[in-house]
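Hey, can you fold this one?
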Amino acid sequence: METVNFDFSALSGYYNAKINYRLASAQGYASVSPTAGTQSGDAVAQSDLPWRQEIDPSDALRKALGAASFISESTAREARSEDSDIPKIFAAYEALAQAKAIADAANSGDLPAGQEARAQKRMLAAIEEVQSFLGSFDLEKSILIAGERLSKAESDVAIKRSSYEYQTKVLHDGEFDAEVAAFTGDKVFTVTAKKINSTETVTIDLSEMEAATGKTVRNLDNVAEFINLRLSEAGIRSSFERVKIGKENEDGIVEGNQFGFKIEGVSTETLSFSAADAAPAAIMVGQSGSSGDSGGQLSVWTGLDTADPSTAVTARLGEDGEDTTIAASALHPDGGYVVVGTTTGTVGEGTARGEEDAFMARYDSQGNMVWSRSLGSATEAKGLALAVSDTGQIAITGKTSDDLVTNAIGGGEDTFVTLYDDDGIEQWTRQRAGTFDDQGNAIAFTSDGSLVVGGTTSSTLTNDALAGGKDSFIEKIDASGNQVWIRQFGTAEDDSIQALKIADDG
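Sure. Predicted structure:
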């Protein structure tokens, strides 16, 4: 029996040499010696050893941050079916190699902007997944030695916290120390800070400003001081300050008297805001430009309860020389917006995957893109509908002419459904369809977190015969991506579901 050393006190000797720190309360990291895994009686060619394979760091990082799991269902199933220890250890090593890609990127400063919190969560998820995976086996020829459990974080190197700035729209036009009209009267709003392991909600009631700070004039500086006091009391490190808004002239000076807030954030806090007296608004989406250079257009209209509504936010999606269309939009619980559509290029941080890709983009209430995601294959995929849950999960549906996942079932154009969490991390993608063309046109969340999808099909999806040229279908999928039921119906003509609404009783 050969001892295979999985030292759960560090990810690996290599990683430990590059960035020497521990994560608090982790059961451990794993480190695999390059000599491990070549057991007696289980000969493996040196070229087949996973640590001898060349890995593109950027591909490994992208997979580590975005994949639903570090050990795929097919890999785990194959490992469990083998008597040998080798596939089990190799699967664990490859999962840890993805976690190492995150660590290397964090150490070198190559993490995508704003991804530090997600990276830390993914590292912890990798540890838990590998431990659970290996703990489910009785290895025949190997012994796994767990390292010391740690109760605190230790570091020999200083890891700088990145800071993140956000600028509001113009809140005041006039002298910097004058009272801001928008702050007068009974103004109450909440600030919610989502941290890695907790969420803090702070109520900002400007009627309490004088008692708390001694300041009476509600100008930008005094209000910022009061907000910062309340945030600090709640243990929130992000802060507000006045900033002049506009373009710098040739001397580097911003002219005029338009001011707003600059929010100085930190990577471990995600802020959202809500107002008690929020006014109604309308989102308009569409397309502008000519074929070959068209872009998606997003605008938010406010003042709908007045005689003079106006656009508060405008944004254009897409890149020059490519076509981008928005198919649907939805409100996010934090006051922002989410859109879904199709592009022949890229949108935001999304990566082009085929001739035409589905995309989804998340915006804050000011019209700034928070993140975007692309979904596609070698040919075409179209995003046609989306839904946002009360917890911020986002589900999209549409159609694809190629396989988006390895276990895809269908023919022609297939319906797909993809679920993302609030951070934009893909949870699962389901591609199950009939022999001929079908597509998802509408999607909605139920109260238990399941999804209902409606669309059109040219196939027989149930035991009932095809009623006409195309039938409508409606399908329920549970929160894990498994089908609960499906119904198909129609007339002798072409039928389709274009919209869905969940009844109060579910």
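The helical segments are 13-18, 57-66, 73-81, 86-108, 116-135, 209-213, 220-233. Let me know if you want another pass with a different chain boundary.
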